[in-house]
Design brief:
heterodimer, A: mainly beta, four-stranded antiparallel β-sheet, 2 helices, about 10% helix, B: alpha/beta, six-stranded mixed beta barrel, about 15% strand, globular
Chain lengths: ~170, ~850
């Protein structure tokens, strides 16, 4: 246990972000509506892309499915919890999506299926996937950024926004 | 649904933003931060040339980047009367925290007073007085006049003992050297106030008289020692939650093996390995879990002793170390007193004198007096004898190659606010003295601390030992006027239920009298107040940054500034002194406490002169400070050890690293400090030799505790949590905190919950003969049956209500050993529905 933990931390310390497996997994995300290229009046909020992250068929209960949103440098997961939860989408209200960089220091969170929490190997913060990403305990001054999800009648899962600032960027859309 | 800010971008700090040195306002660790400010109509850009970091912010930044800040670090505040953006972010170059921000300190930004964004709208902006049946704003001159007239009149009638004072003695927040000096000069210089107490206890005393009397100042090592130690011993402390970045940045590298290179480089002539830790705490905390996850269970020894039995455990460890010959004979001979002293006749029931509750002696006197077998200690503590022996081995046994081990012993409120404070403190320090682990790299026997420190005051010798038990005297009807400086007895005292009941009654007598006189009739008003005081009333003046709970009873509120709204100096747990620079304006007409004290002194002088008492009036001279720096120069520079070397300019240039007190000189414009105390083996006694303490076990010392334990079913252990700072005075107005902590939690064993028919989030009443309070049930599988843990000092449920009035000989409260019964008040209220009651322990499965 301790060994694994140390390894994860080392990864973090070596500035793991670029070109990791997580970023590569972002291949599943396809941009459906790209931002228009012509100049327009600046908006008060960032313009979130609507990205397809997965299809319900891709998901097994309580197994995180790696994605990235709103771009390839912002790792996250989609998760089917098997029971309706806050922010849950889909026919059963049980599909949620979260960013998986810890909002404290940007370490990659690992998912504990045993109690449906995201855990940070850097400083031990924990976030509850069943409670809107509420920090159960930890160092972050934000709860975990959760995606606004929409599931269409084909079972495709789209992300359309994020409810907190993502770690490592001062604008959620770069 | 969890609280979300719906913030999707933040203003970028421009390259030309102003940068101010900041030390976190809150805990003893004092993490380094910087406050960046820039005009409201400007912003930086993503281009490296357009932002303060010189970084391309159109790219995702990596973990631990310096070029990111969270929404909680941002705000808009007033600076020199103008709106400015502010970001208060952790400093990566500060040796204390290396860029880490805790869940408390990293919210300083959004916890600033902002009229623009309505944060901390609770802050006081004007002096307020009781007028026409409620608190109403007034001018400083008017408020000072009322306070000075009533105070002077009460002193004339009752002497200075009629003035009761509660005043903070800490650094950070609104404390610091400037403000402890300002208040200290008023009450201990101009006056000699005896009925005085500190912010978190009912008397004016040290929490660590034991170690000080032995000659060992309590902050004697440096944070780096936690990286160098072979074994860390943590007593009655939960540092992951209460000294967070000290633990994460200095303990964890040792347990994680990443400080091994530093050990080899600094201490090349001995063997080194990954650190071990002994944790002495009845409760399994997140600290225990984190240590196990990092070091492996085999290097973590959690001694979950029966509550309040620390003393006999220390004695057993001490005895075993002595019997095994693991002592440092040379150190004992050179640095501790050779001659023993005779045991006081009635010892251990009575100490050497009322103010000296122990028996200080030499090594062999302590060996004899503290002697206890592993088995006897095991029976009392509930631990296994072999585990106590293992602890002694991890502490005492020399390393491979025969070199002496390096052991750092840290203790905090579990000991300080626990059973038999004085002698338990002594029994622990005995271990460090016998093994010579003081003044050496990787050593130290230190308190870990609560607030930062920042104490410089005229002598308090007139207060005496034992000091007056102020809360008790107030309950008994003593005193006519009460000046309260950032203390909230309603939340942070023992016997709080009864205190609040009586305090309200006494202050209401004065309120009713004030209601009977037109406010503008000052002579009539003072006369009515004095008459009410004769009837048992109490006139209460509350100096604070917010309307506190005790302030509900007060007749005058005086608005104070806090760190950052004034220049403020403090030191941390390794005596590291820094200057937090003023980066914003105080709210409205609020002022630094030192200048409020000065104003009070000047008005006291005027009023006393008008009364014809010239000699007494003259005592109030010397408060003509214009700024907090004037108070610093008058106080710290002239009165603190090494103070003559310390200036604001030098501190400014030394940034968030500052220097470690005491200062010993100045070199190349930098203050030279002291990394560790006692490196020469000379201690803080007249002859330079430390004393041992003969400290035998005598059960639960404080009056009423044994009876309470026998009568009630549950231990109501209590303490802090990660999320909440102190008594939540700012957090109570912070949405992120209150969303997930609407009520104080009480951790309960699952079988106990079942037997009482309780579910997660249910509100329960906790009660005993001292009083009652409420808490929210937090199911905790690791909690032992019959043992609960409740958040201390929280505004929506005050744990101190169920702490009886029993104190030790020196009037140190015993908060930790409280017992009570529990019954259900209500099923989980709506506000708890969005909470998570999952285990707080980090896991990887």
């Amino acid at each position: 246990m301790a060994k694994r933990c140390e390894k994860l931390v080392d990864i973090g310390r070596r500035q793991f972000l670029r070109g990791t497996g997580i970023a590569a997994a972002a291949g599943v995300a396809t941009v459906v509506t790209a931002a228009p290229s012509q100049a327009k009046a600046p908006l008060a909020r960032v313009d979130y892309p609507v990205n397809k992250l997965a299809n319900i068929k891709d998901l097994n209960v309580n197994e995180p499915f790696d994605i990235a949103y709103p771009d390839a440098d912002a790792p996250g997961v989609v998760l089917k919890l098997g029971k309706a939860v806050p922010g849950g989408a889909g026919p059963d209200g049980d599909i949620v999506g979260f960013a998986t960089l810890c909002p404290h220091k940007g370490f990659p969170l690992s998912y504990s299926a045993a109690d449906s929490t995201f855990n940070c190997p850097g400083h031990y913060s924990r976030f509850d996937a069943e409670a809107g990403g509420l920090q159960v305990w930890g160092q972050s001054t934000q709860n975990l950024p959760q995606y606004t999800l929409r599931v269409d009648d084909k079972g495709d899962i789209y992300a359309e926004g994020v409810d907190e600032l993502l770690y490592g960027r001062l604008s959620n859309v770069l | 649904m969890a609280y979300k800010r719906q913030i999707d971008r933040l203003p970028i700090i421009p390259a030309d933003a102003r940068k101010h040195n900041v030390t976190c306002h809150y805990c003893i660790v004092g993490c380094g931060y910087h406050a960046y400010t820039w005009p409201a109509n400007k912003q930086g850009g993503a281009d490296p040339k357009a932002n303060a970091f010189g970084v391309d912010l159109s790219q995702q930044q990596a973990a631990e980047t310096t070029a990111w800040y969270s929404p909680s670090m941002y705000n808009i505040v007033k600076q020199d009367g103008k709106d400015v953006h502010i970001v208060i972010k952790p400093d990566h170059d500060c040796e204390v925290n290396s860029g880490l921000g805790s869940v408390r300190g990293a919210r300083m930004g959004e916890s600033r007073f902002s009229e623009t964004r309505n944060t901390q709208a609770q802050r006081l902006t004007d002096p307020m007085v009781w007028r026409y049946g409620s608190m109403q704003p007034t001018s400083w001159e008017d408020a000072y006049d009322l306070v000075a007239r009533v105070t002077a009149a009460v002193i004339k009638e009752q002497g200075e003992d009629g003035l009761f004072v509660s005043m903070f003695d800490h650094g950070g927040s609104a404390g610091g050297y400037e403000n402890t000096w300002g208040t200290g000069k008023l009450y201990f210089g101009a006056m000699k106030i005896k009925n005085v107490r500190i912010h978190n206890r009912p008397a004016y005393n040290s929490e660590v008289h034991g170690t000080r009397d032995m000659g060992v100042g309590e902050l004697n090592n440096c944070y780096e020692d936690a990286e160098l130690a072979d074994t860390i011993v943590a007593v009655g402390t939960n540092p992951l939650e209460t000294q967070t970045n000290y633990f994460l940045n200095h303990w964890i590298p040792n347990l994680r093996r990443t400080s091994l290179d530093k050990k080899k480089a600094q201490l090349p002539d001995e063997s080194h390995e990954q650190g071990r830790i002994v944790i002495i705490d009845p409760r399994r905390t997140v600290t225990v879990n984190a240590c196990e996850m990092e070091a492996g269970k085999e290097r973590v020894l959690h001694l979950a002793l029966n509550s309040g039995t620390d003393l006999i455990l220390f004695n057993a460890i001490f005895t075993h170390i002595v019997e095994q010959g693991w002592i440092d004979k040379e150190f004992i001979e050179k640095s501790t007193v050779a001659e023993g002293t005779k045991r006081p006749d009635l010892y251990p029931a009575r100490g050497e004198a009322d103010g000296k509750p122990g028996h200080l002696t030499n090594f062999s006197g302590a060996v004899e007096g503290c002697k206890v077998s592993l088995e006897d200690a095991a029976k009392v503590t509930g631990l296994k004898a072999e585990d106590i022996a293992k602890a002694a081995e991890w502490i005492g046994k020399p390393k491979d190659g025969g070199k002496r081990r390096r052991v750092m012993i840290g203790y905090e409120k579990g000991l300080i606010w626990g059973n038999d404070n004085y002698r338990t403190n002594g029994a622990l320090v005995n271990i460090a003295l016998a093994t010579g682990y003081i003044g050496r790299p990787g050593g130290g026997v230190v308190r870990l601390g609560g607030h930062q420190e920042g104490y410089v005051r005229p002598s308090d010798a007139h207060v005496g030992r034992p000091a007056a038990y102020v809360d008790k005297l107030l309950i008994e009807g003593k005193g006519g006027v009460h000046h309260v400086w950032a203390c909230d007895h309603y939340k942070t005292t023992l016997n709080a239920h009864e205190f609040k009941r009586v305090y309200k009654k006494r202050t209401d007598i004065v309120k009713d009298a004030m209601n009977s006189v037109p406010y503008g009739d000052r002579d009539g008003m003072v006369k009515a107040i004095l008459a009410a005081i004769k009837e048992g009333g109490l006139f209460s003046v509350d100096v604070d940054i917010i309307p506190s709970q005790i302030g509900q009873a007060s007749h005058v509120w005086l608005p104070a500034a806090e760190a950052g709204e004034m220049n403020l100096t403090s030191m941390n747990g390794e005596r590291r002194m820094r200057l937090t620079e003023r980066y914003m304006d105080p709210p409205g007409n609020a002022k630094p406490d030192c200048l409020i004290a000065a104003g009070l002194a000047q008005h006291m002088e005027r009023v006393l002169r008008d009364m014809g008492d010239t000699a007494y009036a003259d005592q109030f001279k010397g408060f003509d400070w214009k700024t907090e720096e004037d108070a610093f120069l008058d106080g710290y520079q002239k009165n603190a050890g090494g103070g003559e070397f310390v200036t604001y300019d030098a501190l400014r240039s030394m940034g968030t690293n500052g220097f470690q007190e005491p200062a010993t000189g100045v070199k190349d414009g930098k203050i030279v400090g002291t990394k560790r105390l006692y490196t020469e083996g000379k201690f803080s006694t007249d002859d330079g030799r430390a004393r041992f303490m003969d400290a035998p076990w005598r059960g639960l010392q404080a009056p009423g505790k044994e009876e309470e334990k026998a009568k009630f079913k549950f231990l109501i252990n209590n303490g802090r949590s990660n999320l909440v700072w102190q008594n939540a005075f700012l957090d109570q107005a912070n949405d992120f905190v209150m969303d997930s902590s609407p009520y104080p939690f009480i951790e309960m064993n699952l079988d106990d919950m079942a037997s009482l028919g309780l579910g997660a989030g249910d509100l329960v009443e906790v009660f005993n003969d001292a009083g009652s309070t409420q808490a929210m049930v937090y199911p905790t599988p690791t909690a032992r049956q019959g043992e609960t843990f409740m958040l201390f000092a929280f505004p929506t449920g005050v744990q101190g209500n169920v702490v009886n009035d029993g104190v030790n000989e020196l009037v140190i409260p015993n908060y930790k050993q409280s017992w009570g019964d529990i019954r259900k008040i209500a099923s989980a209220p709506e506000v708890t529905k969005s909470l998570s009651f999952k285990s707080r322990e980090y896991r990887l499965d």
